[in-house]
Specification:
This protein has 20 helices and 7 strands. Among the domains are: about 170 residues; about 170 residues, hpI Integrase, Chain A, CATH 1.10.443.10. A hairpin with a 4-residue loop joins strand 5 and strand 6. A 4-stranded antiparallel sheet has the order 2-3-1-4. Strands 5-6-7 form a 3-stranded antiparallel sheet, with no helix packed on it. The chain is mainly alpha-helical and about 675 residues long.
Amino acid sequence: MSSNTVFESGRPFDNFGLEERSRRANRRRLAVFLSVFLLVALAGLVYVFSRPAIYDATLRLNFVPVAGQAGGDPARASDKRFALRDEVQFLTSRALLAQAWERLKESSAPPPATLAAADPAASLQAMLSATAMEGSNIVLLRAQGGEPAFLSALLDHLVAAYQAGLAERYKSASTGQLAEAGDEARKLDAGVLAKRREADAFRARHNIVSLERDENQVLSEVRGIGVALNTANDKVSTAEARLGALQEAQAAGKSVARSRDNPTLAALEQQAAAIRGDLKAVADTFTPQYMALDPRIKSQRARLADLEREITAQLQSGQQDALQEAREDAAGARAAAARLRQQLAANQSSVQTFTSRFNEYKALQQELANLQELRQKAGDRVAALGAQQNTRMPKVEIIEAAATPQEPTSPWYARDAALALAGALIAALLTMGIVELFNRPPRQPATVVIPQAWMPLPGVGGGHAMDALQSQERRALPDAARAPALPAPQFLPRELATHEISTLLGAADQPLRAAVALLLLGLTEREVLDLRRGDIERDAALLRVTGAAERQLPLPANIVALLTEGDRPADAWLIATDKGLAMTEADLDAALLYAAHDAGIENAGDVTPLALRHTCIAFLLRQGMRFSDLAKLVGHLPADTLAAYQLLAPAGPRQPPEAIDRWLPALRELQTR
């Protein structure tokens, strides 16, 4: 596509052909709509009005509970013969309907010929329903069909047949249940007697005194031996503990003999204490040298030494006596416990046998108790049934007799006809929409102009391309077809694909590659050419853009390396010629065109600085970037340009700058040389 291309320009618009196509489309829509609407409406109305009318006849019955029923609620009474739920089921049973059918055939209102089938009871059962009113004894009996007179007669004969068979059914049920209850009571009497005899014989055979375990001899003896064994074990533990304590004291060199248990030891300790007291009193008065020379004091000290030796001998003798006594006590306790264990082991077998028999006896007693309980219940039931035979029979009262219905209850012809017409309308609209979906007219070609300010249309000297195009079209149209022209829309330049950007960067030399990268970051051509080497902060990876739209842009690492290649001063031009001079716009446009041709890009003339900047803006907007944040990255955009860019933004909420990818994939993948 060239930089200035016109589609369908200069050709008059065919208003007459368009109007003819529009009229044909309207006629087609009307034909499809009427055809489908009439067909569906006719079918629906035929179905609605071909259905027969259904009449509804009702009859209300009150089931009076039998005497003695608590609360008067047959459904909860103890007498199961007259439960309300059972009577509701019986009202629509096949047996009762067969009786009502025979009555109908002999009545003045015979059943219609359509019901005289092989199974008339099933036909009547499909027409009837019986419902018990919650919280009461009232039953609603309903019959539905197409013959009003027959419905009321059916309900009347059905109730008559039910009342005729109620007394006989009640009497038969009462007599049968009473006989059944009496037989059950007699069988239980025989069972109780046999079980009692079996239990008594078992108790006598195995010498079981009572169901209390402690009252039986074998278990009582075993229990006494067990108590004695526990006592003997306690004594063994006490004796062994005392023996162990004495042995530990002897091993530790401690005396276990006490003076209060040995009178001799007590007298010796008393004499020794008296001599110690005298010696202490003398030591308080005389010096040790004098005491060593005094014969009386020397004799007292000798006497004290003799007493201490005698006390030591008495303590050792007492300790041996205590140990011997503890050993004898422990041995005696062990022997007593061993004898009791032997007695308990000898009686263990008899105890197990007795326990087994005792448990069997308890099971027999439990079975006997269960049989007696069943016998008691059976006797109560026989008594209750005997008392109820003298009560009055259940009674059924007709609260509301059946009346011949005058108006049908269904179907609702007016409502169903309206639904059929609404369905026909919806079907017609849907069908028309489907037909039009496959008969859409071809899309009319639009006039699209892509103006480039630096490349005028051929043959138009110095004027704007759009003005020239509008002037040509106005001259081509007749005066009658001319209308006030709408404001010319803003057209967008070409957007480069990812592979085109990559090939363009590969074909460009170092200065041009840097210029292309800056244009793809959203800078204008003038901003790129005004940049200096010091405008790049290499450590912070930032680019300072000066001018009317001053801003700072973050840079990827590979772009920072590309822009800072070589050792140049901070005031040097970032995009310069081979001689280090500033590059002009014409120089940049020409270098970019040469690189586009070398890269083999189709329509290389469309690859301009404006197209590269447009590619960056389109990349940002397609990600849903907010228009208010766009100027922070690409600078100021005119209002008409923003209106044209609105078509590129996706639907939905806009994204902040930190939520989108700021750099084109081709820039991220760019390798520095």
